[in-house]
Specification:
Elements (H helix, E strand, L loop, with lengths): L1 H5 L1 E4 L2 E4 H18 L5 H18 L3 H23 L1 E2 L3 E2 L6 H25 L5 H20 L4 H18 L3 H34 L1
Antiparallel strand pairs: 1-2, 3-4
Helix pairs in contact: 2-3, 2-8, 3-4, 4-6, 5-6, 6-7, 7-8
Length: about 210
């Protein structure tokens, strides 16, 4: 791991470690696989979070580093959940969240961000506690909703991307900022595809 952190390459005058490069490329692959509802989403995610944990810890972003640990735990659950909810023809069965579920997610994001930001600030674990906390909570919620097969997880990812790009730039992680920008494009495509699949699944359920 030290070798991946200590070595890398330079892009536009900015150093990119191999750990950051591989971790973020794998994160992009995760979004691509999730869009297609592939079970490979989860093992690839485990590799990505392991590398990015070290990257963000070295950048003094305690919240963003901590989220990698939580994501790893949710990844194990998501892997298990997707193996239990597979359609033999169309892949993982997905659906739209109910109004109650959407309100619960919004409340969890606001309350969770506030509580975690205050914790990071008190522990001096991040130089940007509020956006750092928002990314942490948003990512945890996104992966949790993804594990449940809820379409809304893509919208949560868009919020994370909107906060993450400027934070990565200010942290000097320019390659990660570029990856977050690409994320946004893939997320929009994923939102469209999962909405289409949710409608198909709803029609199929009604016809039974």
């Amino acid at each position: 791991m030290h070798a991946l952190m200590d070595h890398g390459f330079t892009v536009l005058g900015q150093k990119v470690s191999y750990a950051e490069f591989i971790g973020q490329v794998f994160a992009l692959v995760v979004v691509y696989l999730a869009q297609r509802r592939s079970l490979w989403t989860w093992p690839v995610q485990l590799v990505s979070v392991t590398l990015l944990f070290v990257v963000y810890l070295s950048a003094h972003l305690g919240g963003t580093a901590s989220r990698q640990v939580v994501i790893a735990l949710i990844t194990v659950y998501g892997w298990w959940a997707w193996t239990r909810r597979r359609d033999p023809v169309f892949g993982v069965v997905v659906r739209k969240g109910t109004t109650r579920e959407r309100v619960a997610v919004a409340a969890a994001f606001v309350l969770g961000t506030s509580a975690f930001a205050l914790t990071l600030d008190a522990l001096d674990a991040s130089w940007a506690p509020w956006p750092d906390a928002a990314i942490f909570v948003g990512t945890v919620l996104a992966f949790a909703l993804q594990g449940y097969g809820l379409v809304e997880f893509w919208l949560v990812w868009l919020v994370v991307d909107a906060i993450g790009v400027p934070l990565q730039i200010q942290s000097g992680l320019y390659f990660s900022a570029l990856v977050y920008s690409v994320f946004a494009i893939l997320v929009i495509r994923g939102w469209i595809d999962w909405n289409r699949e949710a409608k198909r699944a709803a029609v199929a359920a009604t016809a039974r």
